[in-house]
């Protein structure tokens, strides 16, 4: 993690992780910055080109006490879960899966796209649920791309994916104050950034300047409370995340909880196959790491 000159802001570099057939740039959690607001996990998937016959196969795996947010720029992923959901995730839409007391899901390329091949790129994030919501019933919410509000700020197009910003309110369900915004900014354009109790900016593509310091592609900058303006030194695609600061969370594998003993219970439940299965996708079992 690198500090920006003359500010209290910090930059998180990407770490490449192989997920079996494609790579991701992992940003959160990071040793010196575990979460930003309620956001506790941040992966940039791809871009990856899958030739005919190949695709994504994220096998059935469990989650507890969190919510996942999947957002694609290109391609399609088929989501299945133990609630009986089967949904294609497509570019611009928001898929919110609330694990609560426990859920199992898989993410795969459907047969049609596997036969033809596709290019895929997107973000997958996890939200820690507030302690009073950690053990709620699991649920799945899908919001079409056309459901997500958008506007132009100083001729810069923005989409408010989750939360409130730029006078817009997203319809996506929240459990704490949460911010998630997409900004497509052209070279030399400037925009004032939305604020939250904790805020970070991630450069999906391009390069931007904050306090005259370059933030390159695939890096995240943790913003401070000062007035923030972003200037694009190249045409860029940016996301802003943030929101309410939550208490400490413990992580193990796909489990997140405010209580260590809850993580241990989840580990034992998965090991002994006490989680519900996914109908039609229940022949593969990933052992507990």
Distance between the amino and carboxyl termini: 28 Å
The residue-averaged pLDDT reads: 94
Whole-number radius of gyration? 19 Å
Biggest sheet details: 8 strands, antiparallel
Strand arrangement, major sheet: 1-2-23-20-25-18-15-14
Question: Structural class, from secondary structure content?
Answer: mainly beta
Run of helices and strands? EEEEEEEEEEEHEEEEEEEEEEEEEEEEH
Number of strands: 27
The unreliable regions are none
> Total number of helical segments?
2
Helix-residue proportion: under 10%
Strand content: over 45%
- The 3D shape can be described as globular
Structure description:
This protein has 289 residues and is mainly beta. It is 6% helix and 49% strand. It contains 2 helices and 27 strands. It has helices at 111-116, 260-271, and strands at residues 2-3, 10-12, 15-18, 23-28, 39-50, 57-63, 66-74, 77-81, 86-89, 94-98, 103-108, 118-128, 139-143, 150-153, 156-162, 164-165, 168-169, 178-185, 190-192, 198-205, 207-210, 213-216, 220-223, 229-232, 236-243, 250-252, 255-257. The strands form 6 sheets. Strands 1-2-23-20-25-18-15-14 form an 8-stranded antiparallel beta sheet, with no helix packed on it. The protein has a 7-stranded antiparallel beta sheet with strand order 3-4-5-12-7-10-13. A 4-stranded antiparallel beta sheet has the order 6-11-8-9, with no helix packed on it. The radius of gyration is 19 Å and the shape is globular. The mean pLDDT is 94.
């Amino acid at each position: 993690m690198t500090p920006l000159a003359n500010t209290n802001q910090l930059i998180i570099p990407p770490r490449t992780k192989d997920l079996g057939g494609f790579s991701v740039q992992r940003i959160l959690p990071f040793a010196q910055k575990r979460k930003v607001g309620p956001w506790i996990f941040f992966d940039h998937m791809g871009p990856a080109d899958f030739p005919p016959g190949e695709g994504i196969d994220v096998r059935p795996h469990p989650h507890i006490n969190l919510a996942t947010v999947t957002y694609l720029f290109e391609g399609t992923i088929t989501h299945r879960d133990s609630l009986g959901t089967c949904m294609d995730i497509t570019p611009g839409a928001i898929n919110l899966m609330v694990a609560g007391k426990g859920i199992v899901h898989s993410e795969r390329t459907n047969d049609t796209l596997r036969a033809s091949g596709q290019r895929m790129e997107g973000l997958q994030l996890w939200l820690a649920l507030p302690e009073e919501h950690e053990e709620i019933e699991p649920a799945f919410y899908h919001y079409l791309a056309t459901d997500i509000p958008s506007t132009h700020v100083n001729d810069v197009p923005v989409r408010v994916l989750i939360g409130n910003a730029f006078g817009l309110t997203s319809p996506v369900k929240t459990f704490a104050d949460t911010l998630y915004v997409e900004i497509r900014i052209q070279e030399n354009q400037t925009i004032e950034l939305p604020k939250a109790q904790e805020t970070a900016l991630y450069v999906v593509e391009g390069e931007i300047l904050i306090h005259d310091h370059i933030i390159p592609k695939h890096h995240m900058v943790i913003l401070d409370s000062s007035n923030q303006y972003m200037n694009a030194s190249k045409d860029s695609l940016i996301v802003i995340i943030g929101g309410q600061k939550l208490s400490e969370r413990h992580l193990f594998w796909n489990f997140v909880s405010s209580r260590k003993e809850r993580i241990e219970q989840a580990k034992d439940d998965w090991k002994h196959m006490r989680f519900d299965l996914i109908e039609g996708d229940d022949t593969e079992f990933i052992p507990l790491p």
